[in-house]
């Protein structure tokens, strides 16, 4: 399958100005402009795990704090000092006391810019959608007074921007997002599945405790090691996973004939209903596997579609995720 499915007018690598107009590649200016959309913006404000992008605020975090919040079952990664031994003996199951306290919440963005993300059939590509989401989260964190950093990975490289609380650091993140995105071409070669786990390993070393970790990827290369790294991240941090997808990756056009280009060659693809049915089912099963494994370790999953505004998708999802 082609790595990027686009119309003739928006084919990556054919005409730079056309690519800009159809939002195939982000620009530094476009990512900086997202700071206006990030004002007052927060993710998961009503989630039990915490208000994830609200900065220095009363947050449900592990360990001792100022105000008692709840008594709940012990979970891997909980501080053993928070175990309520009386409740444990009475209920015959290990329970911990959870407190809230005023605490900084550093934000770490893990952003996929591999060639598998250079795929888009309308508004933009998955790679650009991930870059926009990361920029929004970065500006939001800065507005809240939190430190923000990023791990941006492609097929060959991993770029790390350590968390800092400054406009210059957010601009550096935006610059690296644009630079890594610009390396993507129709002839970029096969995506590297191993880089997903390599990036997650790096994230584990950076986000050692009480971070908000935002994952922006399509999870190409997801395997048992991915689950292990995600489990380690979630044991001491709050993690939000976004599953970036393009509708054409979930369902193929039937019988109408679609013009498809990889930036240099064009062809028409005809798909029967039976072939599309198998394709849709395969995509559904893969997406459900990814969501199921992440939710099993209490990581909320937000689907992000390339056809819609990232800002509107995040706003519409607030308070609705399970």
Automatic annotation (TrEMBL):
- The protein, known as: Uncharacterized protein (DUF58 family)
Q: Where in this chain does the record put each DUF58 domain?
A: 70-279
The record's Pfam families line, in alphabetical order, gives: DUF58
Q: Which organism is it from?
A: Aporhodopirellula rubra
InterPro entries reported for this sequence: DUF58 (IPR002881), vWFA_dom_sf (IPR036465)
Region Disordered, residue ranges: 1-22
């Amino acid at each position: 399958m082609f790595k990027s499915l686009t119309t003739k007018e928006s084919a990556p690598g054919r005409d730079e100005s056309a690519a800009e107009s159809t939002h195939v590649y982000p620009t530094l200016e476009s990512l900086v402009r997202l700071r206006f959309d990030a004002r007052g913006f927060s993710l998961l404000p009503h989630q039990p795990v915490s208000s994830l992008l609200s900065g220095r605020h009363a947050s449900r975090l592990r360990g001792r704090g100022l105000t008692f919040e709840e008594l709940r079952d012990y979970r891997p990664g909980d501080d053993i000092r928070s175990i309520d031994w009386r409740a444990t003996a009475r209920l015959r199951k290990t329970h911990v006391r959870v407190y809230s306290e005023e605490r900084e919440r550093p934000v770490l963005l893990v952003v996929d810019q591999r060639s598998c993300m250079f795929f888009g059939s309308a508004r933009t590509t998955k790679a650009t959608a991930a870059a926009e989401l990361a920029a929004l989260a970065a500006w939001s964190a800065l507005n809240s007074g939190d430190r923000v950093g990023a791990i941006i990975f492609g097929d060959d490289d991993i770029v790390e921007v350590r968390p800092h609380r400054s406009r210059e650091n957010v601009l550096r993140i935006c610059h690296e997002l644009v630079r890594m995105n610009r390396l993507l071409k129709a002839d970029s070669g096969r995506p590297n599945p191993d880089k997903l786990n390599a990036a997650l390993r790096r994230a584990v070393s950076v986000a050692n405790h009480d971070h908000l970790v935002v994952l922006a990827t399509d999870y190409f290369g997801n395997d048992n090691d991915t689950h292990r790294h995600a489990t380690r991240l979630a044991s001491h941090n709050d993690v939000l996973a976004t599953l970036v997808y393009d509708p054409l990756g979930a369902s193929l056009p039937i019988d109408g004939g679609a013009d498809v280009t990889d930036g240099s060659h064009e062809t028409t693809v005809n798909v029967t209903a039976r072939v599309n049915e198998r394709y849709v089912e395969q995509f559904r099963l893969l997406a459900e596997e990814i969501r199921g494994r992440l939710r099993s370790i209490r990581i909320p999953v937000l689907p992000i579609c390339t056809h819609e505004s990232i800002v509107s998708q995040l706003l519409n999802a607030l308070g609705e995720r399970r």
